[in-house]
Amino acid sequence: MAASLSLLPPRPEPNAMADLQDEPHTDYAAHSAYTADTVPAGPGSTGAGDPAAPVTGSALERAVALLSEHPVTDGHNTLVWTLRQSPYHDIDTPDSGVDTDIPRLRAGGVGAQFWSLLPHEDGTADQVLSDTLDQIDMALALMRRYPDGLCLALTADDMADARNRGRIASFLGPVPGRTLTGSLGALRAFHALGVRILAPAGAPWARDELTPFGHEVVKEMNRLGMLVDLTGCSPEVACQLAGASKASVIVSHTAAAALKPHPGNVTDEVLLALRAAQGLAMVTFDAAQTGDSLHAVADHVEHVRAVAGPDCVGLGATFGTEPGVPRPAGLTDPSGYPRLVAELLERGWSETDLALLTWGNAQRVLRDAEFTARAAQHRRPA
Hints:
Elements: H1 26-32, H2 57-69, E1 72-77, H3 79-85, H4 102-107, E2 110-115, H5 125-145, E3 150-152, H6 156-164, E4 168-172, E5 175-176, H7 185-192, E6 197-199, H8 212-224, E7 227-228, H9 235-244, E8 250-254, H10 268-277, E9 280-283, H11 287-290, H12 294-308, E10 313-315, H13 337-346, H14 351-378
Parallel strand pairs: 1-2, 2-4, 3-4, 5-6, 6-7, 8-9, 9-10
Helix pairs in contact: 1-2, 2-13, 3-5, 6-14, 8-14, 9-10, 12-13
């Protein structure tokens, strides 16, 4: 781990009126707004060779206006891992070497980002833990390096406050559940470092079934206010986790298995379990999971909404890579979000449901986790 970077997370600035956050600060609208004529044309954007999505200018203008008030909360971005391998990118300016930078996040109307801290390689529990700590270190260094663009968020109030100050709220996680090997100490340490999401997939305690220790992990996550990310879990284990958690659970990046069979896509059974648990399935822009067109992604978003309900669908594009990862045309970097929203508008989505998709549902599950944590911490043993 780099010795020069502190693992202590910077404290977010206090927000004195966190519950009065529905009106975004004009700074955010200024940072994120663009028109149909000013969609960035750069590597990975529609102007860089992808066919433009067939939406009308008025639909795109409505999408931009909606995102200025209800920006996207993106559930999964792997930029932290990418920057560990190629640390010379400057994400404060358009960077052709990666698909994510602050200008394109702003252009796409992204107001909150979950930064994945999952390692891309197998290893022993100790190796995975060390690698995860290195990624936490890198993520915190990233926020210190770009304080005008990124802001560490620990709560739903921080998320709203960052938006109102023209920053992109940055949540740490998911981290891998396989770092927890019979002890909850690592979980509490992750929380102390600012992590708010953990993915059990691959952990011995959530591989074939949720073991007694797995139930203890979920209980402690509920007490701490951390989100359980079901991504990669088998349908059986995903349903067990959703049932065991007293707080809402998420799937940070997925698509509908009913439309495209893929190991990372959730079945309708899991979507119904999310609906019952008031959880959140966040649809990816990985072409292998969705198909290679904007229309295919919209189909997955609509299927998730139809099965799980409008309160349980969100977006988790899985950007944050270097060139070469297949993406749906028109959705090859974060600046493409308004095109998807425009497509959904043309399909008849109400602005209320779109506001839930982009911002409201993610904020709700974060608040639910915090409420559950407060209730657990105030409960006295019988």
